[in-house]
Amino acid sequence: PSTRSAISRPKICTTSAQVERVSSIVSCKSAVTMVASSSRISVRMAAKNVMPRVAALLDVMVLSDVSAVIDANTFERPIYAGNAIQVVKSRDA
Hints:
Elements: H1 16-28, H2 41-58, E1 68-71, E2 74-79, E3 84-89
Antiparallel strand pairs: 1-2, 2-3
Helix pairs in contact: 1-2
């Protein structure tokens, strides 16, 4: 028998109610940009699950892993495991 204690992992809830709540806040506030952190694995997983669903409800695109903002519609993001930088233009403006 192992004497190591069990490590509990945080529960990540991405229910439809949470997605609806976030999208209603964004639409009520007339937000132009919404940002989610990816500094911790649990937060990253939650953001990666929730953000596309919110974007779909608001009919906008998701830009993930943005490393630089060039202007209001142009962003940089790493590709090929960070070996190249891709410039992405959003058409949602």
